[in-house]
Amino acid sequence: MLLSSVFFYCTPDVATTFGIINITNNPELNSLTYPKYYERSKLNPKTKRIARILLQVVIMVAIFAALLWYVGLGALYNALVNIKVEYLILAFASYFGINILFTVRLQRVLKKEGIKTTFGRTLMAQYAGMLTSDVTPGRSGYILTPLYLRDQDVPTSKSLSGILSIQTIEFLVKVAGGIGAVIFLLQVVPLVNWQHFQDTTGLNGLFVAGLGIALMLVGAIVLAAVTWSEKALTLFNRIANWRFLKKFTGGILGKLEEFRESSKKNSKAIPEIILLTMLCWILKGFEWYFLGLALGITQIPWIGYFLIHPLVTALGFVPITPAGAGVQEFGIVGIFTLLFAAPISIEIKATIGAFAILARGLLIIEDLAGVPQIVKTSGMLFSRKKPDTPTT
Question: Within a 10 A sphere around the Cβ of 125, how many other Cβ atoms?
C-alpha cells in the first residue's frame, strides 16, 4: 500500500518537490515526458482535484452516516458523555509514548546512514507526517515526512528509503499480528457469533480477516523486494518502463537506485526497527485497552486489543476515503461485536461505535502538534526564489 502511495504522490508536481525531476521550467519536458498530464493540466487540474476530494468526502460521510444509523445516535451520545477521563488521559499518554518510539526509530535508521538529527525537530516531523497521513487516502501522506525533515538538511532519498524500510518491517509485524488476531478470535468467539455476523453483514468474517492479512503480506513482500533486492529492482525497472506504465512511474525510476543504495546502509538497523516496532505495538495495545476502560468495556482483555489492533487498523490503508475514515470504524465495530454475546444490544453497539470514533479522534487531536512543522515546511517550500530567466 505504501508503494502505491509513492506512485500516488509522484505526479509531476510532487516529483518536482522531491527533486525527482524538474519540469517546472521546462515546457519541452512537460509535453514529452508527461504528455497526458500536461494536456490535462491545460484543461483544469484544480477542478479535477477538487472533484476527487469531494467524491472521497461524500463516500466518507455516507459511511459514517450508515455507522451512526447502525449504532444509534442517542445511544452513542450517552456513551461519550459517560466517558471516564482518567483512562482517556492514559490512552493519550500511551499514544505519546508511541510517537516517542517512532521518533527514536527514525533517528536510529538515519544514524545508520550517517545522518544526525535532533530529537525535538524529528519528533515534530514525525507528528507532521502522522497528521498528513490522517487526512490522505491510504494514509499515503506519511510519505511526505522527508519534506518535514528538510529543516535538518536530511537528504530526501535517504530519509525516504529509511521510511520505506521502517514501513516494510511494520507491515510484516502487522501480518504476524493479523494471524495472531485470527487465532485469538477462533479461540474466544462462539460459533453462533460468527453466524450472526455473517447473517447481519452478508460477509464471512474469516474470509475478510484472511484477505486483510494476505493484502498486508503482499504489500510487505513488494516493499521488501523493492527496498532490498537488486533483482527485484531490475525487474521493477523493466516493468515500469513499459510504454503504458512509464507515464505513471515517471521520474521516480531514477531515484529508486539511490533508495536501494541507502537501504543497504539502513538494513543494518533492522533488529532495532523490529524491537522498537514491537514496543510500539505493545503500547498500542495499552492505548486501546485504556480507551476501552474509559468507555466501560471490560469484556476484552489487553491481549485482545494487542492482537486485534493490527488487523483492524490495516483498513485505514483502504484509499477510498481519507485514511480509510469510516472503513476502519466499521471494521472495529464488526470485529468487536464478535466478542460480545449475540444478539448485541443497542447500548453495546453504541459503546463500540464510540470506541471506534475515539480511536481515530485521539490520534488526530495529538497529531495536531505537527501543525507548526507543516506550516514551517510549507513556508520553506513556497519561499524559494525561482531561478532567474536568462536574458538574451
Answer: 28
Contact 262, 157 (CB under 8 A): yes
Residue 391 within any structural domain of the chain: no
The structural domain count of the chain equals 1
pTM assigned to the model: 0.74
Q: Say if CB 261 and CB 233 are below 8 A apart.
A: no
* Cα 252 to Cα 295: distance, rounded to the nearest angstrom: 46
Instruction: Please state the rounded mean pLDDT for residues 168-178.
Output: 82
Query: What distance in Å separates the CA atoms of residue 30 and residue 21, rounded to the nearest whole number?
Result: 11
The larger pLDDT score, comparing residue 381 to residue 268, is at 268
Exposure class string for 6-40: b at 16+ Cβ within 10 A, else e: bebbbebebbbebebbebeeeeebbeebbeebbee
Q: Cα separation of 173 and 187, whole Å?
A: 21
Q: What does DSSP assign to residue 137?
A: B
State the pLDDT at residue 201: 58
Three cell numbers at 268?
A: 543494518
pLDDT at 122 (0 to 100): 94
Tell me if 392 is assigned to some domain: no
Chain length of the chain: 392
Range of the domain at 340: 2-382
